UniProtKB/TrEMBL annotation:
Entry keyword set: Hydrolase
Molecular function via GO: hydrolase activity
Organism (species): Cohnella soli
A Pfam family that the UniProt record links to this protein: Ribonuc_L-PSP
Classification of source organism: Bacteria, Bacillati, Bacillota, Bacilli, Bacillales
Full protein name: Rid family hydrolase
């Protein structure tokens, strides 16, 4: 890197919150990428799944996967995830979905809970980061 200019690539999921807040779904600089906290929503901002944390987590992972692919990578490039829940009691449901996508990849993962998200029906958000070679 030694002073070389690195290209910054941004990905959008189309979420209305990206423009409202002023953020990108994912950003890649050089080989490093970060995916923002990703909620289970569609491009209009509507919650896609309200059933449980398992279904919501699967939705979040699909959005994260698409963002990473837009940056030129794949889930195999993820080295860290953060599972953020509104109820820590849902950790096993969210972990089950996480396992379905990441069992072979085994990124460093942190699970924690917060009081709530922007929308009350969101039970989970997911963040990811890694390197694309």
């Amino acid at each position: 890197m030694d002073g070389e200019a690195q290209i910054v690539v941004r990905a959008s999921s189309g979420s209305p919150y990206e423009n409202k807040i002023g953020f990108s779904r994912a950003v890649r600089k050089g080989s490093y990428f970060v995916v923002a906290g990703t909620a289970p929503i569609d491009e209009s901002g509507a919650t896609v799944v309200t059933v449980d944390a398992y279904d919501q987590m699967k939705c979040c992972i699909r959005i994260v996967k698409r963002a990473i692919e837009d940056l030129g990578g794949s889930l195999d490039h993820v080295i860290r995830t953060r599972i953020i829940l509104t109820s820590i009691d849902d950790w096993e449901l969210a972990a089950k979905a996480h396992h379905e996508f990441f069992a072979a990849i085994r990124p460093v993962t942190t699970v924690f809970s917060v009081d709530r998200f922007i929308r009350k029906e969101w039970k989970v958000e997911l963040e990811a980061e890694g390197f694309i070679s």
